[in-house]
Structure formats: C-alpha cells, structure tokens
Design a protein that fits this description.
The complex is a heterodimer of chains A (115) and B (115). Chain A is mainly β. Chain A has no helices and eleven strands. In chain A, strands 2, 4, 5, 6, 9, 10 and 11 form a seven-stranded mixed sheet that branches. In chain A, strands 1-3-8-7 form a four-stranded antiparallel sheet, with no helix packed on it. In chain A, β4 and β5 form a beta hairpin. Chain A is globular. Helix content of chain B is 0%, strand content 53%. Classes of the chains: A mainly beta (115), B mainly beta (115). At the A-B interface, β4, β5, β9 and β10 of A face β5, β6 and β10 of B.
Chain lengths: 115, 115
Amino acid sequence: GAVVSQHPSWVICKSGTSVKIECRSLDFQATTMFWYRQFPKQSLMLMATSNEGSKATYEQGVEKDKFLINHASLTLSTLTVTSAHPEDSSFYICSARRSEVYGYTFGSGTRLTVV
Amino acid sequence: AQTVTQSQPEMSVQEAETVTLSCTYDTSENNYYLFWYKQPPSRQMILVIRQEAYKQQNATENRFSVNFQKAAKSFSLKISDSQLGDTAMYFCAFMIGNTGNQFYFGTGTSLTVIP
C-alpha cells in the first residue's frame, strides 16, 4: 500500500517552454503533498507544500511564478515549471503524507533536462 | 530551528560486515519522529526504518536497527550482514509531530558495499 506515482520519470524540453510533472497517490488520499528538488549527490530541498483545495506554501527563495503547483484533488498534485531554463535542470521528487507515524511516501522522481 | 547532521559523507563496508551510519539532530520539540531513508541509484526514496521519539525502545527492521539516544539527540543506523543491494545514499530525516509540514533531511551518507 501507500504508492505514489510520479510522471514523467524523465523529460527533456527546450528553453522557454513549460513542463508539467504529475504526482498521484494511488491507494490513499493525501491532503498534503510536497515537492522537492535534488541536485546531484545532494540532499532533498523542500520547494513547496501543496494543500488540496488551497494555495501552495513555498519555501523561501523558491519562485512561485516559475514553479506553479496545483493540488486539485485528494490524489493529484502537479508541478509546472514555466519558461524553463537550463538552470532548472534537476531531479524533482514529490511525496505524499500518508500519516504522522508513517511519514511520507515518495514518488520515483522526474529528471528534467532543459536544453 | 531544527537541523539534522550526518557527519559521514561517504562510507564503505565489506559484504556481510556491519556498518553504522551516524546522525544527530537539534530541536526543542518533544513530539517528533525520526526516519532513515535509502536512495539507491534508481533515485527512489525508500523508507528503511522509523522511530517515534516518545518510544524508548530502539526500532529494528530485519538487518536494520537504530540506536536512539534522545538526550544526546543521536539517531544512528546499524546495518548488519551488509549486502550489495544496500549500496545507496542514506538520509536521516526528522519530522515534527502534529504539524504535517516540516520534514528535515540530513545531507546524506553514501554507502558502498564492497564484494
């Protein structure tokens, strides 16, 4: 149980275009989902907290207009990287809060390459 | 402020041997949870073990066990009978209870199991 599906697993896009990444909780409802960014050989950096039916909460230094987050249902959150630039290339991971005891379940991540 | 420190960026261990990964944290909270996550080359974050701060007994999961020293704010992970599949990045993580929001990761320890 507690599976989180993230799609796509990798994407290459041109500079200036937008890319949407989906995060779905398959067998549980997640009122809260989280988006992380991870650079090579580094830890996960929390970008934003996505709350179903309300605006996302962004961490300091994360541009909310560049990284649009939508959490329209209890099982789906999306991250859209708008007007992507090469410096946005990274590994993006979502997670859903299953319960306080069990913590987070993570998606398999999306490798974004902007050329 | 909450911090998680992993002082060993890289470690190696011979197959079948035992290795201990260290983690310390700093918090003024009383209600919190501690986790160890494994991230193999596939980049999928996998929960290894968790510990509730109010429990004195150290958590164990098969070959994985923790040494939780609450007063010292230490949470080390012991891997017994190391296997090649244990090669991965290991992240220590901390979550404050009853908030559902803040989840802090350490910088990670890269573990290599040598055949």
